[in-house]
Amino acid sequence: MSFTLAIVGRPNVGKSTLFNRLVGKRLALVDDQPGVTRDLREGEARLGGLRFTVIDTAGLEEATDESLQGRMRRLTERAVEMADACLFLVDGRVGILPADEVFADILRRKNAHVILGANKAEGKAADAGVIEAYSLGLGEPVRMSAEHGEGMGELLTALEPIA
Ligand code: GDP
Ligand code: MG
């Protein structure tokens, strides 16, 4: 059985970097209509022996009339509804910001199956941030580096029960 994983979290935590690592060039569905914002990107991911669909909540970085907060909420809710589970990414180097708490609340309210990921955790600079991530109350964070490909085995272990 296959499953769908939504990568959610505030802008700049590394969602697209992870999406690209998981999907490579196997982008299944892109909205290629000119002028249309690519809010949600979907691709076929491979990790170890797992094959699954992954959704990247993109588009948060683009300026629109809608407030970032409203847009964030709407996109995240849509992604959560499409997915069997969510990978909630935080930035291990920055630690937990109020915006991260907003996402945690959305995910709790939606009763989402959440895997918490502390990204940018290569090296020691993220040690404090990874510890701080426990305060979200979403369980043990998977320490990872989307850019350097670290923690992918741990991510696989976290995903296996969903598959
Ligand atoms: P998004 O807005 O959540 O999609 O974040 P992006 O994937 O666009 O990444 C934002 C920035 O963080 C980019 O400059 C990435 O190169 C950087 N980044 C992503 N993953 C990592 C990581 O594991 N370690 C470090 N140091 N930087 C990362
Ligand atoms: Mg992105």
Question: How does this model look, in words?
Answer:
It is a single chain. Helix content is 31%, strand content 24%. With 163 residues, it is an alpha/beta fold. The protein has one domain (4-159): Rossmann fold. Strands 2-3-4-1-5-6-7 form a seven-stranded mixed beta sheet, sandwiched between helices. Helix 4 (127-133) links the parallel strand 6 (114-119) and strand 7 (142-143). Bound molecules: guanosine-5'-diphosphate and magnesium ion (MG). Guanosine-5'-diphosphate (GDP) binds next to helix 1. Belongs to the TRAFAC class TrmE-Era-EngA-EngB-Septin-like GTPase superfamily. EngA (Der) GTPase family. This is GTPase Der. Residues 3-163 form the EngA-type G domain. Associates with the 50S ribosomal subunit.
